[in-house]
Design a protein that fits this description.
54 residues, 0% strand, single chain, binds zinc ion, little secondary structure
């Protein structure tokens, strides 16, 4: 996962940044803690295994 533009404010962060330096929005897609499936930003449960998001 390399640097990218913030989905909220468009600020381009440094490579490896996990949060936007301007607005604090998470820059990385959340993952299930159990099966590592990619979750959507507003997911409350894993769509693959049902693990509640922590
Ligand atoms: Zn931002
Ligand atoms: Zn899962």
């Amino acid at each position: 996962m390399s640097g990218g533009a913030c989905s909220k404010c468009g600020t381009v962060s440094q490579q490896g940044a996990r949060f936007c330096p301007q607005c604090g929005t998470s820059m990385v897609a959340p993952q299930c803690t159990k099966c590592s499936a990619a979750l959507t930003m507003d997911a409350r449960f894993c769509g693959a295994c049902g693990q509640p998001r922590t």
